[in-house]
Design goal:
CATH architecture of one domain: 3-Layer(aba) Sandwich
Structural class: alpha/beta
Main location: cytoplasm
Strand content: 5-15%
Subcellular location: Cytoplasm
Number of helices: 12
CATH class of one domain: Alpha Beta
Order of helices and strands: EHHHEHEHEHEHHEHEHEHH
Number of strands: 8
GO molecular function: ferrochelatase activity; metal ion binding
Helix content: 40-55%
Function: Catalyzes the ferrous insertion into protoporphyrin IX.
Catalytic activity: heme b + 2 H(+) = protoporphyrin IX + Fe(2+); Fe-coproporphyrin III + 2 H(+) = coproporphyrin III + Fe(2+)
Radius of gyration: 21 Å
CATH topology of one domain: Rossmann fold
Largest sheet: 4 strands, parallel
Bound molecules: ligand L6N33NVT, fe (ii) ion
Strand order of the largest sheet: 2-1-3-4
Length: 370
């Protein structure tokens, strides 16, 4: 039996394309304890996610976590589940569709967009296989995490490499490492805050809450913390905020070790006593709304804040499939596929002009705000 998958006879003149694999974290198949157990087992067994010696971790994982957490997490998932299923999955599919449409109008050559999840379904293996079948000879991997973190981006790349070991004819491969300071991404965030302020009274502070990671990972050289702060600073600049009008916090702490501080929940519990009773909160590190934004930020932390005496608490949704976000992601794809036939030689004149115009707009918007 061949160690390679889906082998096809080679023939000259077969049509080729550029393939783009969007990768997000993954979500359980259903909001019930057995599905959560399966999902958490795969997720929390990843040594990129939990970096403690396996012999110790396996005792904790199999002895405690997988016996207690699935039921508790399932109840949280039920509170955000919709008729379309998991928000993360539904929104990711909308992003894939919108990006495919953007690619079809931008480029003359074929660019195929597929969606994969690092854990659960659709798997990275199935996404790559679809791209292989579509004739992708050039592959761009785009993890939908703006800030690089080994626990998210690197593990997505690991999985892609593992899978490509099973291809006889390995395609050209490029990876998007991060896009935490991409002008289109910052512009999309700023626009979504400004739109929110047009519709709701503005809070005293804009809280920018990012998913946490263990503090130890920062000390070991993970650039995530630094990239979160850069995104936050650029967003604050784009909104012309003064230092006392914004802050960064870190959410979703897991386990007993110290994680990146300040913690979102503790901060929101303390702010009312400091006279800050009206806040807007945004989660710039989440490309799509999910359990961590809809349950933890929109529901749980609102209660903490109001219980501590806070009055107005507004969650500003993730960028999801909004058109500025899709344009920014399309620009990122365009920039990372320079020199590849489908996106360069055949790059339509209109697309080139639009991209140049957007670059000028970002520059002049930033100039005007300084
Ligand atoms: C165990 C440690 C964890 C690390 C490190 C971690 C990093 C990390 N996670 C995201 C994004 C998401 N995490 C989500 C859920 C989630 N995260 C952890 C744990 C760690 N995350 C758990 C156990 C869970 C599952 C839910 C629970 O039981 O609490 C999600 C939501 C998925 C969904 O289905 O909606 C996202 C997205 C980032 C960006 C990150 C590091 C930067
Ligand atoms: Fe997480
Ligand atoms: Fe959480």
């Amino acid at each position: 039996m061949s160690r390679f998958i889906n082998e096809q006879d080679y023939f000259h003149g077969k049509s080729e394309c550029t393939g783009v694999l969007l990768v997000n974290l993954g979500t359980p198949d259903a909001p019930d304890a057995p599905s959560l157990r399966r999902y958490l087992k795969e997720f929390l067994s990843d040594p990129r996610v939990v970096e403690i010696p396996r012999i110790i971790w396996n005792v904790i994982l199999y002895g405690i976590i997988l016996n207690t957490r699935p039921a508790k997490s399932a109840a949280k998932y039920r509170s955000v589940w919709t008729e379309n299923g998991s928000p993360l999955m539904h929104i990711s599919l909308q992003q894939q569709k919108a990006l495919q449409k953007a690619m079809d109008t931008r480029f003359n050559g074929p660019v195929k967009i597929e969606l994969a999840m690092r854990y659960g379904n659709p798997s990275i293996a199935s996404g790559l296989l679809k791209l292989k079948e579509a004739g992708a000879r050039r592959l761009l991997i785009l993890p939908l995490y703006p800030q690089y973190c080994a626990a998210t981006n690197a593990t997505s790349f690991d999985k892609v490499f593992d899978e490509l070991k099973r291809w006889r004819w390995v395609p050209e491969l490029r990876l998007v490492n991060h896009y935490h300071d991409h002008p289109g991404y910052i512009e999309a965030l700023a626009s979504s805050v400004l739109e929110h302020w047009e519709q709701h009274p503005r809070g005293q502070q804009l809280i920018m809450s990012f998913h946490g990671i263990p503090k130890r990972n920062l000390m070991l050289g993970d650039p995530y913390h630094c990239e979160c702060y850069k995104t936050a600073r650029l967003l604050a600049e784009a909104l012309n905020l003064k230092a006392h009008e914004w802050r960064v916090t870190f959410q979703s702490r897991f386990g007993k070790a110290e994680w990146l501080q300040p913690y979102t929940d503790k901060t929101l519990q303390a702010l009312p006593a400091e006279g800050i009773k009206n806040v807007d909160i945004i989660c710039p590190g989440f490309a799509a709304d999910c359990l961590e934004t809809l349950e933890e930020i929109q529901q749980e932390n609102r209660e903490y804040f109001q219980h501590a005496g806070g009055e107005n608490y507004h969650y500003i949704p993730a960028l999801n499939a909004n058109s500025k976000h899709i344009h920014a992601l399309a620009d990122i794809i365009q920039q990372h596929t320079q020199g590849w036939a489908e996106t360069s030689a055949h790059w339509s004149e209109a697309a080139q002009q639009q991209s140049a115009e957007r670059t000028l707009q970002y520059a002049s918007a930033r100039g005007a705000k300084k």
